[in-house]
Amino acid sequence: MTATVSRMTRPAETARPKRLIGARLQEFLMLLPASVIVAVFLLLPFLMSFPMSLTNRRLIPRPVKFVGFDNYVNVLTDPIFWRALLNVSYFALLVVPLQCGFALAMALLINQKLPGRNFFRGALFLPAITSMAVVCVIWGTLFQYPTGPLNQIVSILTFGLAGPIDWLGNPASAMPAIVLLSAWQAYGFQMVVYLAGLQSIPGDLYEAARLDGASTWQRFRFVTWPGLRQTNIFVLIITTIQAFKLFTQVNILTQGGPRNATETVVQYMYQVGFVGQKLGLASAVAIILFFIVLAISLVQRVVLRDPK
Fold it and tell me: Can you give the C-alpha Rg of the chain in angstroms?
């Protein structure tokens, strides 16, 4: 009897590793196309940029000369680079809490059992799938000076006491205007991530909190917010990385002006590499930006890690 049972179990035991290998192979094949694209268009150019940053390579054909770390010295001693880094840091400090906070609020709203919930989910996500160039054209019209719609709204709300604002032409308002545009266009991605995080929180926790007499705020404070801890870390890091890559909005609306008030590191890299045709210098800027963003991301990960 024992021999019969052992013979019956052996095929099942040998079939499990085969199924596991088949599942792993299927996962690998599904990841392969995306991995190839990332390797060819992201990883390989980055690896090529470091040796290029040590040369005087330009866009126009000319003999390439090894210059060592001169490009890095030139970048780090250029006041425009530091102004660009300060501007993009200011942008990140404004856009990250605004964008993430609005995304969380919208996720909490569409997570409720409301009529037409699926329609509102699609409508709220629409800006995220709209081309940034199109968004910039639309918001450029809204910011138009002096007769743009936003200036008309300001005039109505202040009963004509506040004059028209040159949103993109004033150094004090240009970056906040781009922050508002950027937060509106990109919050949809964070909203979807937050929605997934909200739906992963067990409903039993909310039910237990209601039975204990917890208010809406207390349920959010002691159930929702702790349950979104890992989601918050992911959203914060991703949003910060995207903020430091600010380029399209600036390039279309202000080209870094007025008076370098909206100059960013990527805009600076574009001006150096494609306008100034100094690919070696632009590669040095890219390497420096990479390590700055990497350091900020690591600090965020350490600060926000689970204390347990």
Answer: 26
- Of the candidates 82, 44, 295, 264, the one whose C-alpha atom is nearest the C-alpha of residue 52 is 44
Mean pLDDT, residues 84-107 taken together: 95
The larger pLDDT score, comparing residue 92 to residue 46, is at: 92
- The rounded distance, in Å, linking the Cα atoms of 173 and 94 is 13
29-33, 57-61, 223-227 — which is least confidently predicted? 57-61
Q: Examine residue 307 and say whether the peptide bond preceding it is cis (omega within 30 degrees of 0).
A: no
The answer to whether the bond into 202 is cis (omega within 30° of 0) is no
Query: CA of 133: how far to CAs of 6, 182, 242, 275, 289, in Å?
Result: 67, 12, 16, 20, 24
Q: Provide the pLDDT for residue 113.
A: 82
The residue among 92, 44, 88, 85 whose CA lies nearest residue 238 is 92
Asked if 92 contacts 78 with a C-beta cutoff of 8 angstroms, the reply is no
- Give, in degrees to the nearest 5, the angle at Cα 46 between 44 and 47: 65
pLDDT > 90 fraction of the chain, expressed in percent and rounded: 48
Token pair 């067990």: residue: 202
Q: How many CB atoms lie within 10 A of CB 235?
A: 22
Average pLDDT across the chain, whole number: 87
Q: Can you tell me the distance from the alpha carbon of 249 to that of 135, in angstroms, rounded to the nearest whole number?
A: 9
**Band of residue 120 on the pLDDT scale cut at 50, 70, 90:** confident
* Beta bridge partners of residue 278, listed in sequence order: 58
Q: How many CA atoms lie within 13 A of 274 on its CB side?
A: 7
